[in-house]
Structure formats: C-alpha cells, structure tokens
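Limitations
The structure tokens in this dataset are predictions for the assembled complex, not deposited experimental models. Users should treat interface geometry with appropriate caution, especially where small molecules or nucleic acid strands are included. An illustrative entry is reproduced here so readers can see what is and is not provided.
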Amino acid sequence: QSVLTQPPSASGTPGQRVTISCSGSTSNIGSNYVYWYQQLPGTAPKLLIYMNNQRPSGVPGRFSGSKSGTSASLAISGLRSEDEADYYCATWDDSPNGPVFGGGTKLTVL
Amino acid sequence: QVQLQESGPGLVKPSETLSLTCTVSGGSISSFYWSWVRQPPGKGLEWIGYISYDGRTNYNPSLKSRVTISVDTSKSHFSLNLSSVTAADTAVYYCARIPDSSGHGWFDPWGQGTLVTVSS
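Predicted assembly:
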C-alpha cells in the first residue's frame, strides 16, 4: 500500500481535460514539494512536474500541477493519444525521512 | 546532457546478493545525489535509497538491513547491493539522479532500467 493515494485509473477523450489526484498527509505533501512522473508503456519514468507546478523544458504546457494542503493534482488539457501512460506523484516524507510515491494512475485515452 | 545506464546480472538466485552498477555519462557524478528505484512487474515505484557524491547515504527503512549503495567518482558510477534476495525482489531496477543539494528533490534523469529476476 502506497503512502500517497492516487486513483488507479482515469480516462478521457481526445481534446478533453483530465485531472489526477494525489492525497497524502502533513508529513509528506503537506510540508514538501510534489513531483509528477509520466511512464509510457515499456519505458522508464520521466519527470513531468517538479516543485508542485514547474515544468521541465520540453514538457508541453498542456500539463500542469497544483498543490493544496495535503493534496496535489495533475491536470492534462487538450488530451492526446500519446498521453496514454501511467502517472505517478511523489514527494519527500519527513517520517520515515525519504522519497515516497503514489501507487500510480493509468490514463486511458478513449 | 546527463545519461544513466544500469548494468548487472538479469538473474539472481534466492538468498544471494543482487549487484547493479549505474554509469553516469555526459556530466559529472561529483555533485548532487544518486538514487535507486525499483518497480516490480505490473506494480508501482519503490524508492530503495540514495547516495551523495561524497558518500552520504539514506535508505528506505523497509530495505535498510539488506541495502548498500556506494559511489566511485573516479569511474563515474554508483552501485547497489541488495542481499538475501527473494522472489519479492524481482523488479525493474532504475537508477536516477536527484539534482538537488539536499537530496529531497525530484528524480531526473532516469536510466532505462534493468530487469532482475530472482529465481533458482
């Protein structure tokens, strides 16, 4: 069971906006930055969002992150077929003092 | 840009030690933190531990008794040893950089991953 809670699945049609939630606690999301990773089928995870809402160069503006209290969200607007992937949230947890991940959300583009 | 590449045996016998190396190219290993993350087949990501360029370590408490991570800056690589493995340790093992001065940051970039199967 993961420290951070994500819905196991999400879906949308091309062009839609979808959001993926990530719920934690005061010892992790509540007091630390949140990161998001995209894992395309058969590949390594790739950084999508860092420091709650910052996009690395090369990540399209369709991806955005937000954080409020002990929860965070990843939003994908203008959904495209190539966005079909697993998405993981992550953060630092003050107890037990290390990085933690959500269980992952499988996004399906219908 | 920095690239990471894992290497090591793809098959390890139960009770033996899993050993992997991550070679860093395109940049210096002598800064930031360097980490191992694993992913059992069909499951999510699990942080194993990390090491700083100067040898400070932090391990996942659930694995701490079996994990050792070391760094060799002269060879630009860092290594993972996981002892007393069982079938539950079968996973794709990734190495990744934490480009943050505290070790509390994000993982970027990642290696391509290597599948390690524990079986007799």
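Some entries come with short summary sentences. For this one: The mean pLDDT of chain B is 96.
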